[in-house]
Amino acid sequence: MPLDAAGFRAAATKIDITPATPQWLLGYDARKSTGVHDRIYHRVMAMDDGRTQFVLVSSDLCLFSPELYDQAAEALRQATGIERKQFWWAVTHTHSAPEVGSPDVYKALLKGRSEHEWDRAYTAQVIASLIHAVEQARSSLEPARLSVGLGMSMANINRRARDVDGKVTLGLNPDGPVDRQIGLIRVERADGSLIGLAANYAIHGTVLSGANTAISGDAPGVVTEYLEKTLGATVLFVNGAAGNAAPIYSVYPTPAAGHLSQFRVLLGDRILQANQALTKGTADVNLQLDELQVETPLKTGLEWPPQVSRYARVEDSGRVLVRLPVRVLQLNDTVIWAAPVELFSEIAIDVRSRSPFPRTLYFGYTNGWFGYLPTARGFAEGGYEPQTSVLTEAAEGDLTRQVITYLQGSAGR
To answer: What is the pTM of this model?
Structure first.
C-alpha cells in the first residue's frame, strides 16, 4: 500500500447504518425492532504517520462473532489494501441495536436468543457501509496534530450485586470496583480545529431494558450525538472494560424512565471537560501496531464452533485452548490494548497500574466477541458473567501476564 512521508495525517467520518426494516435486536431475549429512537452509525477515525496507517471503527452495535470481523477485514483488504492488523472494529455494546452476522460463537452463551434466521441482507449492508466509510476517511486524510488525555466520569457503577448469603446477581453495587477513567484521542488541524475525537469509557449499553424495542445507541449513542453537535466533528465512542460496569440508570423500559438524556451531562459533559483540558497536539506522531495471541482454556463441557477454528488450539490431551487476539497500538508515549471480550474492570485497572507507559487505555468489544472475561475472584463468587463465560478462572492470569510482559518489554523501543 503506497504511503507518503508527508507527516502525520488524520480524518474522521461516519455513516448511517440504521436499518429500514424491522430487525432482531441483540442483547436480551430475542425481540424484533418496532421503530427507531435514535439512529445508529459506523464512525471511523483514520491515522497515517507517513509509515503506518491505522483505521479505528466504532459501530453502534451490541456484538458480533469474530467470524464477521474476519469477513469484514478480508473485504476491506481487497478493497483498500489495509491489512487486518491495521483495522480495529469496536462496538459500543448497545443492547438496542440489530443483530449482525452469524451467531456461531455465542449460541452456547445465548441459548434461546439466536434460534431465528439471521438477516444476511442487513449484514451485507453493514459491511458494505463500513468499507465505504473507511474509503471516505482515507480519501479525506489531511495534515493533523494528535493529543491524548484523560478524564473521569461517575456515569457507571459495578453491577455485581451481593446478598447477605454471598450470592451475586445482576444489579447495582456501589461498593464494587469499576473503571471510571475517560481516555481521549483527539486529532486536530494545525489551526486547532477538530477533525475527530475518540472517547474511551467503560459502560454497558443497558440503560434501556429488553422491554424496549426501538433501535437506539443507548447511552453511548446519545452521548456521541450530543458531543458531535457540540463540537461540530465526528466523535467515536469506544467502550472499555465494561464486563461488570453498568450505567447508573440501568434496564428501564423507556428512554424517559431510564433518564437516557441525562447521560449527556453525566458522561458527555465530562468528556467535553477532558477535551478542553487537552494540551496542544503534536504533528510528530509515531504509530506502532502489534498483535498478541493469548491462549487460555475453554470451559469444560463446551464445544468450540468450527466456523471460528482459527481462534482455538487443541492440545494432545484433548484440552481446548481459546486463542484471544489482543491488539496493541502505541501512539507516542500512549499505549492502547484491545481484546474481543467483556473484560472485568479490575483487570484493565491492574494492567494500567503496572504499565510503564504514561497513559494506558483499554478498548473492549473489539474485533469480535468471545463473551465475558471475569477475574479469578469473580469466577469464585459466581454470578451471571462467570456462569455464561466460555473461559475459566485461569483467564485473568493468562491475559494479564502476557499483556503486562509485552508492555514492559516494549516501553522505550
So the answer is: 0.96
